Amino acid sequence: MEQHGHIASYSHLYRGDCFRLAAGELFESRGHHGQYGLVDNAPLHALANGNGAGNGVYIYGNGTVFPTSAYLSSNFWVDVVFTPATSAQSTIWPSTATPSNIDVGPLGPVELGVSFKSDVSGYITGIRFYKGVNNTGTHLGHLWSSTGTLLATAIFTGETASGWQQVNFSSPVAITANTVYYTTGHWSIDTNYFATSGVDNAPLHALTNGNGATNGVYVYGDGTVFPTSNYLSSNFWVDVAFRSGSSSSAAPTITTPPVSKTVVVGQLATFTVTAAGTAPMNYQWQKNGANVAWATSANYTTPATTTADSGSTFRVVVSNAGGAVTSTAATLTIAAAAGPGIQLSSNAANFGNDPVGTNTSQALIITNTGTAPLSITQVTASGSAAFTVGGYTPPMSVSPGQKTTITANFLPASVGTVSGNISIASNASATPTSVPLSGTGVAATYTLNISPPSLSFGNVTTGTSSTSQNVVVTNTGNSKVGISQVAVSGTGYSVTGGSTPVTLSPSQTLTLATQFHPTVAGSANGSISITSNATGSPAGVSLSGTGVVTIQHSVALTWGASPSSVSGYNIYRSTVNGSSYIKVNSSLVTGLSYSDTNVQSGSTYYYVTTAVNASGNESSYSNQVSASIP
């Protein structure tokens, strides 16, 4: 074959890899080829061929035609550079998820939580928990590392009555992909929720208990201890708020820090900060280093100041997705009022729930914070007639720096919430001084719990006394209960500790010590009767016992005289036939009889004797006799 020269040629194959974006759409990436397998690198996933799309696709042409052919599920080593958009908040559970058992936990403080991880790195911005209508009080959210390091804490504010509650951290916490973390708070509960499976809501995953981490964790305490105990792989319905990706936000900077203030006692003080950075920005004011509830804007205004506030420092933590910065601290100085000043120990009096017909009092301490005598000319209560004020005789004069006390009283006459006000007229510049009052009248309950409802003393020997047994009477209502009489009936029974009349406040107890002193044989029944103004009065406790007479048994032993000259005899006893004898007489028996009184009913005894001569030599055992005691 004749060769005219060399021809160089190539074919350019446009081949593509298929991948899925976060929005759920399929796209093609095309380039040159090689061979490989499927790859998961969250949030990107190169799909298995046939798993929702073809992979290892190609087509011959100039690159303007979509490739649809596949070649051996090949990887042609084509990749993408993906920049995620600012992510929306992700949570483990949707807002429609609800627990089976809402807030069934104890009243005491307990830390409960869920272990989780994320497919991708990002930021935990806050904590969520599911709340029931009876779950009142302060709630804390915590984020922990898997080794027990506390990463962040936040106090829930602005809660609704029930449903999912969320608090955001003052500074988002960065987490690493595929790393276990714990989030904790208050509880609702579904037991065995994580026993066999977790919850997957990519990129977040609540873990199966034992699958790399413990889930359904708890510890009793105030939230400062990492929970390591597990209860039935339970879900306590604590969740996280998560944003994926690294921060592209400009971290905040303080451009104008808060400045120190001087105000007259009783006035308000306002602190302001100006910060630059990528919105949205979060603010958390702190007083003396501790977070101030609800103080989450660029401005913070204090409540009416007191002399105790003087010297306090105020600063603010400003944060966004890019980081956090803490301002310098401003100092608050409280100046005495020129002339007389007035300051109350409480700006309001809330009596909470009070049984109808029961009076509750709160002391209000008035301090003269000025430089001249304070003259109080009138103190009046207004609003509901359930409120009164006492403990004063106007006019009253209070020297600078001195104090006086008045008393606010709440005596509800009916069920329901009422409000009122105490007005204090004086020669201070801010007069009259008002104290808002509130309280709720609730139905009075008068109930006693008697425990135990009966006592049994069993068999007690006549002429002796039994061991004392206690009956505990507890006021389980919300009102005071007056016990007018504690009476005991039945021969041989006595009660001490029940001196009447006596009044028990709610939760207060009275202990009645009870004994049985039988004088004759036979069973004896009795009772304790407790008369009071409680529902179901009189309440009773049944008593039972049996007097028994002790019968003294004895064994009379006699024997024949020894043919030899002896000084006396020893008597031996055993409960074993033919062995294990023990001497029962303390000194030699010189006669030919002995009475053994140290025997018990229902037993059989075996006896032998020995003879002892003047030299102290003892003979061998005599023949054995036995005695059975009825």
In short:
This protein is an all-beta fold and 630 residues long. It is 0% helix and 47% strand.
Question: Which key phrases capture this entry?
Answer:
8-stranded antiparallel beta sheet; Jelly Rolls; 630 residues; mainly beta; 0% helix; 6-stranded antiparallel beta sheet; 6 domains; Immunoglobulin-like
Can you put this structure into words, describing what you see?
The chain has no helices and 51 strands. It folds into 6 domains: 13-70, no CATH class; 110-244, PHR domain (Jelly Rolls), CATH 2.60.120.820; 253-335, Immunoglobulin-like, CATH 2.60.40.10; 347-361 and 374-441, Immunoglobulins (Immunoglobulin-like, Sandwich); 448-548, Sandwich (Immunoglobulin-like); 555-628, Immunoglobulins (Immunoglobulin-like), CATH 2.60.40.10. The protein is 0% helix and 47% strand. It is mostly beta strands and 630 residues long. Strand 5 (57-60) and strand 6 (69-70) form a beta hairpin. The radius of gyration is 44 Å and the shape is flat. Strands 7, 9, 10, 12, 13, 14, 15 and 16 form an 8-stranded antiparallel β-sheet that branches.
Per-chain topology:
Blueprint: E1 13-20, E2 26-31, E3 39-41, E4 44-46, E5 57-60, E6 69-70, E7 110-118, E8 122-131, E9 140-145, E10 150-155, E11 163-175, E12 181-185, E13 199-201, E14 204-206, E15 217-220, E16 229-230, E17 238-244, E18 253-256, E19 261-264, E20 270-272, E21 274-276, E22 282-287, E23 290-291, E24 299-301, E25 313-320, E26 323-326, E27 330-335, E28 342-344, E29 349-355, E30 360-368, E31 374-383, E32 387-390, E33 396-398, E34 403-410, E35 416-426, E36 433-442, E37 448-451, E38 454-461, E39 469-475, E40 481-489, E41 493-496, E42 502-504, E43 509-516, E44 522-532, E45 539-548, E46 555-558, E47 568-574, E48 582-583, E49 593-596, E50 604-612, E51 625-628
Parallel strand pairs: 19-27, 29-36, 38-45
Antiparallel strand pairs: 1-2, 1-4, 1-5, 3-4, 5-6, 7-12, 7-14, 7-15, 8-11, 8-17, 9-10, 9-12, 13-14, 15-16, 18-21, 20-24, 22-23, 22-25, 25-26, 25-27, 28-30, 30-34, 31-33, 31-35, 32-34, 35-36, 37-39, 39-43, 40-42, 40-44, 41-43, 44-45, 46-49, 47-48, 47-50, 50-51
